[in-house]
Specification:
This protein is of the alpha/beta class. It is built from 17 helices and eleven strands. The protein has a five-stranded parallel beta sheet. Strands 4-3-5-6 form a four-stranded parallel beta sheet, with helices on both faces. The chain starts with 9 loop residues before the first helix and ends with a helix. Bound molecules: iron/sulfur cluster. Iron/sulfur cluster binds near residues 344 and 352.
Length: about 350
């Protein structure tokens, strides 16, 4: 298969759906880790095509959603520092923190600029040599290498007014934390295709080895996802847990070594605070000592105040797969994409937004 259309072939999709129905005999719970999978699954109506034996859960794979309020408050406080230009991907703008959001801070005079890449953030730093430019390092292993590359570029060019607020998260430790919480009762996991392109499918071997769970690495087209679900059902029914890569056009067992080299040249592993999960050891990235002068936390001392979670919001439970959005009392009534209460309704990859836009509930 060479062309995208071939991954959307209706006849092949129908055959895969039929195979899933035929192979699935017992009730199972499958979690898709990645927010892009969540949106694709809802948008394509895949849940409705599956037999009632298969329950699909959405996981924590939306970087905006898992950013803890304390980190978000820190970002908002940094944006309000005199002379600071805060650059960020657009998803973060409307996420409510404890007392404000980047959008509100911007409306009140903070200089918050939306960028589409770290290259733009670096250009802002070049254009404003007398002002500190802070870039919000949000995301999983997919985005961290690009942010690492921007640090290396800044170092090469001698750009000294550029720095990073690193809030990166690593997906395997986040997944382990969810499994260890014992709330999700999973039988299988659809691993994140983009992240695994970077970290490699070998990174998920702990799932069958330590948890007896099958994992399938899938792409994002209809046939990718259906093939992934069929493969998972087949492994679970056969009681042969394994990691299977059904996205070989992008994912290799060892991942992308160049990207990983960049990432670990600039960052080192540290504990990270996940919304709804709490502090998870070895699940985040901070700048290495050599590059610590690019660390916004070293350059600025901000005191954002105590963290306040939005009352009634169940984002933490939704992220862990312990609750679904319709179980939240605010869903659709108070909390909508126009008036989001929690990050899972703000982000285009958030589970609550996906339910709101595509589910019938
Ligand atoms: Fe939070 Fe809104 Fe989702 Fe409820 S519906 S969990 S308030 S984002």
């Amino acid at each position: 298969m060479k062309y995208l259309d071939e991954f959307r072939d209706p006849a092949l999709a129908a055959a895969l759906v039929e195979n899933i129905h035929r192979r699935s005999t017992r009730r199972i719970r499958i979690m898709e880790f990645c927010g892009t999978h969540t949106v694709s699954i809802f948008k394509l109506g895949i849940r409705q095509l599956l037999p009632p034996t298969i329950e699909m859960l959405s996981g924590p794979g939306c970087p905006v959603c898992v950013t803890a309020n304390a980190d978000l408050d820190c970002a908002i406080a940094l944006a309000c520092e005199p002379e600071v230009i805060l650059s960020t991907f657009g998803d973060m703008l409307r996420v409510p923190g404890s007392r404000s959001s980047l959008e509100k801070a911007k409306a009140e005079g903070a200089e918050v600029r939306i960028v589409y890449s770290t290259l733009e953030a670096l250009q802002i730093a070049r254009d404003n040599p007398d002002r500190p430019v802070v870039f919000l390092g949000i995301g999983f292993e997919t985005t961290a290498p690009t942010i690492a590359a921007s640090v290396l570029q800044a170092e090469d060019e001698g750009i000294t007014n550029y720095c990073i607020l690193s809030m990166h998260k690593l997906t395997p430790p986040g997944t382990k934390a969810i499994l260890d919480s014992g709330e999700s009762h999973l039988d299988g996991i659809i691993g994140p295709g983009h992240v695994t392109t970077i970290i490699g499918s070998q990174a998920w071997e702990f799932l069958p080895r330590d948890y007896g769970l099958s994992c399938v690495i899938a792409g994002f087209e209809p046939l990718d996802i259906l093939q992934g679900i069929y493969t998972l059902v087949d492994r679970i029914e056969a009681a042969q847990p394994a990691v299977t890569n059904v996205y070989p056009r992008s994912v290799r067992p060892e991942g992308n070594k160049v990207a990983l080299d960049h990432m670990y040249r600039v960052f080192e592993v540290c504990a990270a605070d996940w919304r709804g999960i709490g502090e998870v050891p070895a699940s985040g990235l901070r700048l290495r000592e050599t590059y610590r002068h690019f660390d916004a936390r070293e350059r600025f001392e901000v005191h954002p105040g105590p963290t306040i979670e939005p009352p009634g919001c169940l984002c933490g439970d939704v992220i862990r797969g312990a609750k679904t959005p319709p179980e939240c009392g605010l869903y659709r009534k108070v909390c909508t994409p126009h008036h989001p209460v929690g990050p899972c309704m703000v982000s285009s990859e958030g589970t609550c937004a996906a339910y709101y836009l595509y589910a019938e509930e």
